[in-house]
Amino acid sequence: MYLSLPLQFASTRSMSVVVFTCDGSAPPIPYTVSVPKQGRCRDLIQALSNACSLRNEERLLIAEIRNHRIHLILEDPVLQLSTIKDDDHLAVYRLPRLEKRASYVQFVHRREDLDLGNNSSSTSWKPYGVPLLAQISRNETVTGSDIHEMARKMLVPMFRNHVAQHSAVQSSLSTRTQSYHTDSSKFQLQLIDDSNTVIEQTDYAIRVPQSSVATVIFVNWSKLDIKKLNTNHLEHLPEVFKYAPPAKRTRGEPLSLYACLDAFLREEPLVPEEMWYCPRCKEQRQASKKLDLWRLPEVLVIHLKRFSFSRSTKHKLETFVNFPIHDLDLTNYIANKIPQRQTYELYAVSNHYGSMASGHYTAYIKLLDENRWYNFDDSHVSAINEEEVKSGAAYVLFYRRVGEADGAASNGTQSCVKRSRRSSQR
Question: What is the pLDDT of residues 346-367, one digit of tens each?
Fold first, then answer.
């Protein structure tokens, strides 16, 4: 009896990330790329590789960031991109290719925070910004000096007075804190392991667990030194996709009702969680879903899906849809081919004004015996011109079949409308 049609169908999806280098060759750079909507993690990696001109000896590692730490490393190339939500935050790390499997070291930034509780002030360290990531070959011995060098390389491009010549960067040893120079300006780098022990620049080996979870090392920033950082690189990690209301279409380029129907009937692949069990080979198989129209009713109701939901956002699409008032021809959309043409005429529209939080419904109805359109707005009823029926507020469309059997269908619809009008009068 009715069809719920999508207003927008996109075969691609825009995804925004920030790419960090581990060799200090460039500051963090944001990228927005287009990937297949039903694509996999390897599609995102390929798009980013092209965008950042990745070299053959390099690779990209994608990580989801939560609470200023790496929450999950997305290493599976066949992971469905649909598992990455629009409001997730992704950091991508540009790493050298290793012949052996890698272990990771995650540098989590913390800034100095003054705690004024209990009538006394004390200094605490608050997680901050986006973590940096370095990798080492498994079974490789790593020293305190190695850890400091990893951090130094990645941090140099983020300093406000950084110059491109890496030869200008020097290091000097101190007892508890390692000092570096960037363009003659010192900064104090204090590295702390997860047991709250200071990591000094020594040749003593540091154990890095052989697992896919990154070892955490905290980088403590004093209020003085953090001012020397270009914190824009660390503070602003964009959402994968930031929703913005679509630009209003002009009447010269509207979205066609036929395009909405094409999107509804288009074949789409099913996600791995919805794999199909093949009775022939007795295995779960990747499958696709395809909807077809087999038979249409005398009265066809079309619902335009204007309300969109995600994990943390919900919004209404104000897209203007150009729908036929006369001669909606669905003949070519019927899978069960029949000789009669399947054409419809609009006789009513339900409109929605407002937002997700609050709104107002009105109706445009054509009284067939008068051949005239009326606007029903609560207790107010007024006549309108036919061209006013099309608007961006149209939510549900009501069509009646016309054509060879027009007489019977028209009489049935007229009697229904007349009964409704008598009931309304009562």
Answer: 999 999 998 877 889 999 999 9
Is 100 found in the same domain as 31?
yes
Phi-psi region of 404 (alpha: psi -120 to 50; beta: other; left: phi over 0): alpha
Domain-embedded: residue 351: yes
CATH label of the domain that carries residue 298: 3.90.70.10
- Nearest Cα neighbor of 230 from 321, 162, 148, 306 is 162
pLDDT value at 91 more than 50: yes
Radius of gyration of the chain, Cα coordinates, nearest whole angstrom: 31
Do 344 and 393 lie in a common domain? yes
Query: What tens digit of pLDDT does each residue of 297-311 get?
Result: 999 999 999 987 765
Q: Which residue has the higher pLDDT, 353 or 225?
A: 353
Residue 360: strand pairing partners: 353
Half-sphere exposure of 278 (CA within 13 A, CB side): 9
CA separation for the pair 220, 107 (Å, rounded) = 10
Query: Residue ranges of the alpha helices (H) in 352-405?
Result: none
Q: What is the pTM of this model?
A: 0.57
Q: Taking CA 35 as the corner, what is the angle to CA 79 and CA 251, rounded to the nearest 5 degrees?
A: 140
* 111, 120 Cβ separation under 8 angstroms: no
Same-domain pairing of 273 and 224: no
Tokens read off for 191? 């590295």
Residue 311 structural domain:
257-401
Residue 5 lies in a domain: no
Same domain, 268 and 142: no
Helix/strand/coil (H, E, C) string of 65-78? EECCEEEEEECCCC
Contact 6, 264 (CB under 8 A): yes
Using DSSP's 3-state secondary structure scheme, residue 422 falls into helix
